[in-house]
Structures are given as C-alpha cells and as structure tokens.
Known about the structure:
Order of helices and strands: HHHHHHHHHHHHH
Structural class: mainly alpha
Helix content: 55-70%
Distance between the termini: 58 Å
Number of helices: 13
Number of domains: 2
Largest sheet: none
Strand content: under 5%
Amino acid sequence: MLHPNARQETVVALVGLLVAMTLLEMWASHRENRKYYERRDTLTNIYLTALAFLLNLAVGGTTFFILHFTWQFRLFEIHNAIVYWVVLVLAQDFLYWALHYIGHYCRLFWAIHVTHHSSEHFNFSTGFRSTVFEPLYRVFFYLPLALMGFSAVDILYAYLVTQLYGNLVHTQYNIPLPKWYGLIFVIPSHHRVHHASNIPYLDKNMGMVLIIWDRIFGTFREENLPEPIKYGLTHQPENMGPVNVVFHEWKALVTDIRKAPTLKVKLQYCFYPPGWSHDGSTQTARVLQREWEEKAVA
C-alpha cells in the first residue's frame, strides 16, 4: 500500500536527520562543555548497535516469514489507505509498549533489555544502544498485526519508522514543543525519566511514539524531581567490557537461580520483576517507590 521508493526515501531521510542531529549535539556538547558524550560510552553504543544490526540481518528472513505466514490467517483487512496506516502505527506502537513493559517487569527479558539502560550518559547515540537479543523474540509480539491484515513489509516498515522517532527523543537538550504535543507524543523530557535511575523514575514512560499508553496504564511520570537525573542502573556494573556489557545481568540472574532453594523460587527469579528476591535482600522498583513515597510524606 506504499510504494517501495517512498519507504526507502522516508527511511533514508530519517536516518540522515538522526545522524546530522547526533553530530550537531556532539559538537554543541563539546563547545558548551556539557560532557553529554564520553568516548568509551559512545564506542560502546556503536558496538551494541552493530551487534543488534548483525542479529537483525541474521533473523530478518525468519521474521518476515513468520509475519507473512501468520498474515495468511488474517481476520480482516482495511482497504482505506489512511485508516490502514493510522491503525497500523497505533497498534504497532501499543504492542511495542507491551514489549517494552515486559522488558522492565520480567527479569528474564530485563536481562536482555538492560544493555539499553546501562549507559550513565544520555544523548542521541544512546538511542542506538540496542537491546541486542530482542530480534530473537520481538516478532511474536507483532503477530496480532499480521492477524489484523497488515502485511509483513508494512509491519516492519512501521516498526523501523517508529524506532527512528524513538531515537530522536534521546537528548538532554530542551526542545521547545507545544504543551499539547507532550500530552500525546513522547518528548525528550519523558524519555529522560525513562533512562533515569532515581527511584521515583524507575520503570516509567515506556512509550516509543505515543505517551498515551503510559498515561492510560499508570506508568507515566513527569520530569519533576528537585534533584538532577542520574542516568544508568541502580547498581551499575564495574566491568563494562564488550562481553560483560551484554551478559552482566544474565550472570547475576544465574547466580540468583543457583542460590534459590526450590524450583518455584528459581522460576520466580526468572519471571518476577528485577529486584525481587526470596529473602528480601533486594527489592523491586515498586517496593522502593512505595518506601520513597512514605519517606517523602513523613
């Protein structure tokens, strides 16, 4: 429903815009001595992007096949082109929100997603700091789109465009936008909260393009704390080498599973939220937030 040339031109334009804005932000940060970029961190972002790109190439054919196969069992079709694309983008963005939510509230998926949050810096290059192994399972979250009659090519195109938009909100610069825009769409302020390790900000603002899902499901938070944002993880690993930056949470998960006294507890470590422990030695973000709120009220 969209000419291949139009797809290519849109993607090239968005990638070009993102590269230009990254270089501009890097230059402005250096000129103003803001220290938004750090060489090792930026190289790590590029390295993780390359890993995810190679994995996407490796599984791309399988992803297309699964979506196309599922599309053959579609329940209906939308013939109006405008309605088709509006519904596709809305549905795809919601399903990404669900994927992202599970990445934060199920430790098994958090072990994969954590690479995107492990940087203590926040800039346009952080948007490229990919969840390396996500391409292995992402397709299963988008199967409902194929059942809704959206073609594999269109699903993948919509995903790519919304991901590129998501990269554009990774900046500490305040971009002047009308108030109404931030009520509907994700803006840099929202995504700065998402990457913060301040307790009240943990696991908030999961949206990629639309912030309305977070407002509806109770995961929205304004950037309104008096103290500055601290980026990164609540427990930052000391070793951020090329292997550990990908697998450090897997190592921690395996350690917890080994010390678990029963099979039930082992499974709880896999599927309960990050921070959960059978002995209370560590706490989930929601528990930490309740404790923080109680102290704030007192």
